[in-house]
Design a protein that fits this description.
The mean pLDDT is 85. Helix 1 crosses helix 12 and helix 3 packs parallel to helix 7. The termini are far apart. The chain is globular. By secondary structure, the chain is mainly alpha-helical. The relative contact order is 0.12.
Length: 296
């Protein structure tokens, strides 16, 4: 048997190494991500015409369009998820800017640690903590009464404001980290040059800082939006009966009604909503998905 030249052996070894490195990721994506989504897509077009009898059709999607509670909850979830993402961005941007450009020495890791501490507990525990604070016998109601701002117990649970508060709290870390990474690469000399040329604080922020941080803004917004639109625990616990969230409709179809085709249709529509919103965000900001991940 003729031996391969050294150059071909080297090329073969490189290809084999690349294949071995990529194989776990490809297998993970194929088995745990792609195949389940394909199954959901196929199942969503299965109409139940009799007990344990199914046929191909669009009945599940037509039922969604014909039932107001479904598409209103869908629209409400999309709107509140976008609102939560914007509020999280507005709150997190100054924090990330301070950590990236003003904090120094041991204060920077300490600030990061302070942002990370709430996530040492599970989402369920954090949500229960908010319920204890916002209920009519909770800490905030007690403080309002002691300060004379309320004449009696104040119930701050089971409304859109409490849901938004819980979701913003849960998403801040995922916005701060990519923003900080993007802002750390901004040279201080560029900011000083903007001021030397007569720019105001608002002008420097709008013309220098925000454009440089745009990959981090897009990356953080995508992560926060995806986590928010697919959240289940926080809207259900903080919103109660009034906290209609589309994931609750999906859960009801799968677990309560055992209508897996309808639940699959709802899940596929939620996936489509997330994809469209993320694509529009990338188009509006002029960012590419690969470029955003690389810079953030």
């Amino acid at each position: 048997m003729t031996a391969l030249p050294s150059s071909e052996r080297s090329l073969f070894a490189e290809k084999l190494g690349l294949f071995l490195l990529l194989a776990p990721a490809v297998l993970w994506l194929g088995v745990l991500v792609i195949l389940p989504h394909v199954e959901i897509a196929v199942l969503s077009f299965s109409e139940r015409i009799a007990p344990r009898v199914y046929a191909f059709g669009f009945g599940n999607y037509l039922e969604f369009l014909g039932e107001p509670i479904y598409w209103r909850t869908f629209a409400r979830t999309a709107f509140l998820s976008i609102l939560v993402t914007l509020i999280t961005l507005v709150i997190s941007f100054p924090v990330a800017l301070y950590i990236a450009k003003f904090a120094s020495g041991k204060s920077k890791p300490l600030l990061f640690l302070m942002c990370l501490i709430p996530f040492w507990a599970s989402e369920l525990v954090r949500t229960l903590g908010w319920m204890m604070m916002l209920r009519e016998t909770g800490v905030l109601s007690f403080l309002l009464q002691k300060a004379g701002l309320a004449s009696g117990p104040v119930e701050m649970l089971y409304n859109d404001a409490s849901v938004v508060l819980g979701l913003v709290y849960g998403g801040m870390l995922f916005m701060i980290v990519p923003l900080t990474n993007a802002l750390e690469s901004l040279e201080t000399a560029q900011i000083e040059a903007g001021y030397d040329l007569g720019g105001s604080h608002l002008t420097v922020l709008r013309r220098i800082i925000i454009p440089h941080a745009m990959p981090g803004i897009v990356a953080g917004s995508i992560v926060v939006f995806m986590l928010t639109v697919g959240n289940f625990v926080t809207p259900v616990m903080l919103g109660g009966k009034n906290g209609l969230w589309f994931t609750e409709q999906i859960y009801s179809q799968f677990i309560t009604r055992f209508n897996w085709p309808q639940g699959s249709a709802f899940g596929f529509m939620l996936l489509l909503l997330s994809t469209v919103i993320v694509w529009l965000g990338l188009r509006l900001t002029g960012q590419g998905f690969a470029e955003t991940l690389r810079k953030a």
